# Entry
Amino acid sequence: MYKFLLKTPLRKVWQKVGLKKRAGVVFPLFSIFSKKSLGIGEIPDLKLAIDWCRKVGMTILQVLPLNDTGFDFSPFNPQSSFALDPVYLSLRNLVGIEKEGIEKELKDLIPKFSLKTKFVNYQIKGEKLKKLWLIFLKRASFPSGFKKFVRRDKYWLEDYCFFRVLKEVHKEKSWEEWEESLKNRKEKSLLKFRKKYHKQIEFQKWLQWQLFEQFKKIKNYARKKKIFLKGDLPFSVSRDSADVWQNKKYFKLDFASGAPPDKFSRKGQRWGYPPYNWEEILKDNFIGAHNFLCARLKYFQNFYDLFRLDHIVGFFRIWVIPAKIPLTKQRVIGFFDPKDKKIWEERGRRILKLIIENTKMLPCAEDLGTVPSFCFKIMEELGIPGLEVQRWKRNWQNFEYLKPGEYRPLAVATLSTHDLNPFPAWWEKEVTEEDSKKFWKMIFLKGKVPKKAEKTLIKRNLELIHSSASIFVILPVFEWLFLGDILKGDPHRYRINKPGTISKFNWTLRMPISLENLLNHPINSQIRGIIQKTKRV
# Structure
């Protein structure tokens, strides 16, 4: 069924991944924890997540974006497309640091940031950084590995570390509010700043090196256990980011990107991210160490085998709104960029080909929403899997739900995403009575349609999605935990993010069980049974 992939430009990557059906799981790192974690999931905790995947028969472990978000904490609004977030750094696993003194540093933080709370307290980041600064000052010297890292990744590292320290000095204000000479990167002002804050800039480099070292160990461990790691590279870049500050010519700063009005959003959406200036980016065909998109792909293949290519339609065309236009006017003023529809198809194909040529990772596209048909054609031509979300897979003539056997073979099938309610919450709170009957019919269950998402329904649906035609099935870990007694109460509580809202519940959901306990939980035999039954082991 999948042999055609060996004739696509991604054939070498597909040979590495293998032309077989696979099951995987999404573990948001902030949601998981081990008994050694400090307030939040940490990079070394992924070893236990890999062990769990092996135990239940999964071969893909996906994470949400792990880039540095400053103090915003939305993983899709990072301050750098390269830098990892120090909140995920394990103080117990620092390279070149004596272990004896670390436990003493942690003693006062452990009770303050309990892992037994339902939601993550992100104040842990500031506290961790204070401890890391003290540890950094006490270190004996920089190891040779650090110096090599700084030389190799100078392109993005130097400017990111400048940016991060500048943000601290300016009390986290946007770079657009800094004095002109720093805002516009005048060399004399930057040299003066470097001289004054040299130690703080070196600290930021040291943090990124430590993160790199910890993550590389995870990649090596995953390879040894034959688990593929899948990352998530957000399509857009935050306006207030090191990337934009460093590469202003690559962005159209007079505009904000978004989505046009539709039946779900009368005014459309305004995300606020600056659209890419593809005319500038494509001038050098994406090639060379000093093209930040190319460099970004090369950096992340240190950690990942696959990656989620967010908002793939945006490479063909993107809805833009003049940045100064009030929100009330965006319906009228917004337009697609480029304006000429005739060039959408060829531009998208060119960008995607260049992405493929500059990475050894397998891109997996997020192709939801209103997508031109040529986009799907080009994805198949290039060998890029799309995304099939069960609740939206319907025959729109009779509104019947599609059977998973009718899904695209070249796709990742799932029950939900980080922006959606998990299946039980969707069933109990969103689906209409008429749709619940159609869904019940589709999954071949008998008897009265239940209002509650009972275990029989949950298990049957997990079996069904894994029997889909799609080459990969990757579910958020919470979808699996509903099988047992781990998740209690209203299933709506286990939603990771609600788009368009500012809430303390977004991006803070914690799994109510440690990874050590999950590894030994009776639910694992049920999970492995489903994956074996559907031949995805």
Notes: The longest helix spans residues 198-224. Residues 68-229 form one domain. The longest strand covers residues 228-233.
